[in-house]
Amino acid sequence: MAHWMLRLKACFGSNVYTEVPDGGWGWIVAVAFFLVEVFTYGVIKTFGIFLKDLIIDFDESNSRVSWIISICVFVMTFTAPLSSVLSNRFGFQLVVMFGGFLISLGTILTAFTTSINQMYVTMGIVTGLGYCLTFLPTVTILSQYFSKRRSLVTAMASTGESVAIFAFAPAFTALKNCIGWRYTLVVIGTLQSTIIISGALLRPIVIKPKTSPTGSDQKIPEDQLQSSISSGDSGVQSLDKMKQGLESVKVQDEAEPLQVPQNQQDNRMQGKNKLLDLTVLKEGSFLCYSAFGLFATLGFFAPQLYVVDLSASMGTERDKAAYMLSTMAVAEIFGRLSIGWVLSWGRVRKVFVLLGCVSLMCLVLVLFTLVREFWGLAVCCVLYGFLLGNIASTHIPMLAEDDVIGIERMPLAVGVYVCIQSFAGLAGPPLGGVLVDITQNYSSAFFSCAAGMGLGAVFLGLVRPANTGRLCMRRDKVEKVSEVMPEEFLEVDILTNPDIKS
C-alpha cells in the first residue's frame, strides 16, 4: 500500500525544475485549462438556448430567467478571493477538483428544479461557486509553468471557450429537441465532471536553484526536500531560503547567535502564512489595472446580448441575424491565437499592446451605432470578436507581468482583481437594459459600453507610470531604502535610480 502511495505522489505531486520550464508538464496543464474553459465559460455562454424553454415551462418573464446567469457570473467573480485563499491553503489540485464536483452537481440538480427560484440556488450559487474554484487556480498555475511562451500558450488554451460556443450551441440545441432541456442539462453536468480529472493534472511547480559555482557542497536534507515537495502548497516555491537557513545555522555554530528583531520575525511569519494579498491595494499600478478591469468589463456584454436585436431593427431576418454570434465566436478564436503570437515576440511591452487593443475596441463599439446595413454590422462583429479574443485571453495573465504585480504575487492577488471586476459584470447588463428601455434604441447600450471601455483605456495607460513612480512619488520605497542604507549610499542611489526620484 505504501508503495502505491509513493507512486501516486510521484504522479500527482509537485514537479521540481531548476528554472521555469516553458514547457514540460506545463503542456498538460494547458490541456487541462482548455477543458476547464470548455466546460465553464463555454457552457455559461451557451445557456441562452434554454431561456425560451424555461420561460414557457415556468411561465416566467424574460428578465427573471435572465437573472440565473447574472447570479452565476456574479458569484463566480465576487467569490474570487475565496478561490485564492483556498488555493494557497490546500493547493490547486484539491480546489479545482472540488470546484468541478460543484459544477457537475449544480448543473444536474438544475434539471430537477420546479421553479426559477430553485435555479437561482442550483445554477446561480452552487454552479457559480464551482466555476470560481476552477478557473482562477488553473490560469494561475498555467502562468507559473511558462515565462517566454506564457502569452502564446495561455491564448491557445483559452480558445476552449470560443470552440465550445461554436460547437455547443448547435449540438445542445439538437440534443434538446430530441430529449428535452432537462435531460440535456443532465448530459451537460455529466460532461462537466471532466473538470475533476483536469484538476488532478494541475501539479504544483517547485523551482530548485542550481548548484552554486563556488563549489559549495552544502546539500538540502532529503526529508526536508520531500516535505517541501509534498506539502501541497501552490505556486512557485523557492528552495533558496531553505539553503540559506541551513548555511546560517552552520555559521551560528561557530559564532555568536544572530538576534533577529521581533517585528521582522512577525513580518516573515505573516508573509509565509499569507493566503490573500490585500497589500496590493496600496500599489498604484494594481489599482489602475483593477480600475481598467472594472470599466472595461462594461464593454463585454452589449454585443452578445443586443447584436441580434440591433440587426433585426435594421430589417435583417432574425434567423440571419443569429449568425452574427457565430461570426463573433470564430473571430474570437483568431484573436486569442494572434495576440499570443504577438506577445511572444517580446519586442513591445505587453501592457502597451493590451492598451492598443482596448482603444480599438472602444472605436468598434462606437462603430456599431453608426452602421445601417447587414454587412457593415457583420464587419463590426468580426472586429469586435477579434479584439475581444485579444483582451479576454490576456487581461488576467497580464497580472503576472512586472509592470503590474509580477508572477510571485499573482496567486495571492488575482482573486482581488476578479472580485473588483464582478461589480461591473453584475451592473453592466441591467444598465444597458435600462438605457434601451428609456431610449427605445439598442444603440444606446453600445454607447454605454464604449464609454466604459474608454475609461478602462485611460486607467490602463496609467499602469506603467504608476509602476515606475512617474505618476506620483512613492515615498514608501524611499523610506525602506533609507532604513537599510547609509545616507551617502542613499544619495548615490537616488541619483542613479530614476525610479526613486521625486
Notes on the structure:
- By secondary structure, the protein is mainly α.
- Helix content is 72%, strand content 2%.
- It contains 26 helices and 3 strands.
- It has a 3-stranded parallel sheet with strand order 1-2-3.
- 41% of the residues are buried.
Q: Which labels suit this protein?
A:
single chain, 502 residues, mainly alpha, three-stranded parallel β-sheet, 72% helix
Weakly predicted, low-confidence segments: 215-244, 246-273, 473-502
Radius of gyration: 25 Å
Amino- and carboxy-terminal Cα gap: 64 Å
Shape: globular
Sequence of strands across the biggest β-sheet = 1-2-3
| % residues in beta strands | under 5%
- Helix/strand-derived category reads mainly alpha
Task: Count up the helices.
Answer: 26
Main beta-sheet strand count, sense and barrel state: 3 strands, parallel
Determine the fraction of residues in helical runs and give it as a percent range.
over 70%
> Can you write the helix and strand succession as a string?
HEHHHHHHHHHHHEHEHHHHHHHHHHHHH
Question: How much is the average pLDDT?
Answer: 75
How many β-strands, per DSSP?
A: 3
